[in-house]
Amino acid sequence: RFVILGPDNWVGGLTYKWNEAGTDATLLETGDSQAFTVIDKEGNPFNQIWDFPSRGQCITCHNTNAKSVLGLKTHQLNGDLTYPVTGITDNQLRTWNSLGMFVNGPLESTIPNLPKSVPIDDPDASLDLKVSSYLDANCSHCHRPGGVITSFDARFQSELDKLIYAPTQSTASTEGSQIVIPGDALHSMLRIRDAAVEEGAMPPLARNIVDQVYIDTLTAWINSLNPDDYEIPCTEPTIDRLVWVNSDT
Fold first, then answer.
1. What's this model's pTM, rounded to 2 decimal places?
2. Weakly modelled stretches of the chain, pLDDT under 70
3. Burial annotation 80-94 (CB, 10 A radius, 16+ → b, else e)
4. 29, 48, 27, 26: which is closest to 37 by C-alpha?
5. Rounded to 10 degrees, what is the CA torsion of 26, 27, 32, 36?
6. Listed residue (73, 230, 72) closest to 166, CA to CA
7. Were 177 and a residue from 40, 51, 182, 189 both cysteine, which residue would form a disulfide, CB within 3.0 to 4.6 Å?
8. Cβ-count burial of 146 within 10 angstroms (0-12 exposed, 13-18 middle, 19+ buried)?
9. Under DSSP, is residue 112 helix (H, G, I), strand (E, B) or coil?
10. β-bridge mates for residue 93, sequence order
């Protein structure tokens, strides 16, 4: 897959599909899918459907509102990486800065104070940080101001508390449902749709399996929330004033 950045902020997506021998790849004009047999880390085979996105589907995620190139964010690069060519382990921001890859790079002394996201399976990170990091990486290109119609802002800097008791607005969600219900993961629409595979699955493109580590972490975070700490929004009409109407007039 390729994302091409052209003049005047033009963005295009291209998808190629390898032949069975793996010797050549064909540029796809439309989307496609194919079943593959995959061997897991325990050596067990399983079937997986792989989606090849169309050009239009590429731009659904790599959209201009999210600045098209996804993943190259300060908080995602602010961590150590072992570079295989040199064997050196160093902070990615510091390495890129020393290579002159930034126009106005950060001062080395400020890097430790910059925001930093974590992997979903980080054993030392809090549930809040793991969920925030995951939602930003996988959802924020659409779920942000100016994106899809929703009350859900998945960007890393957004507070997770804003999802609690927030009404869903998507037509693919159950009417009257809420994104997160504290202490009740099974009825929280965020978990319901992220754990779905077919109808109502989120994201709706290019996902045919469930990320169980994420779902387990999301479930643990939602169930760790104490309902007594959050105010349930009032959805019933309230009486602002009473007006007496004379039945004789």
1. 0.82
2. 171, 234-249
3. eeeeeeeeeeebebb
4. 48
5. 40
6. 230
7. 189
8. exposed
9. helix
10. none
Residue 127 CB neighbours (<10 A): 17
What is the C-alpha R_g of the chain? 23
Closest CA to 133 of 114, 110, 160: 160
Amino acid at 166: A
Read off the tokens for 14: 């291209």
pLDDT one-digit tens code per residue, 49-85: 888 999 988 888 888 888 888 888 999 999 999 999 9
Phi and psi at 233, nearest 5°, equal -65, 145
Residue with tokens 């479930």: 219
Burial 165-188, CB ≥16 within 10 A → b, else e: bbebebeebeeebbbbbbbebeeb
Cα separation, 41 vs 239, whole angstroms:
61
Cα distance between residue 172 and residue 200, in whole Å: 6
Task: Answer for the pair 172, 198: CB distance below 8 angstroms, yes or no.
Answer: no
CB of 1 within 8 A of CB of 28? no
15, with CB counted inside 10 A (0-12, 13-18, 19+), is buried
- Residue 97's contacts (CB-CB under 8 Å, 6 or more residues apart) are 105, 106, 108
Q: CA angle 58-62-67, nearest 5°?
A: 160
Instruction: Determine contact, residues 107/127, Cβ cutoff 8 Å.
Output: no
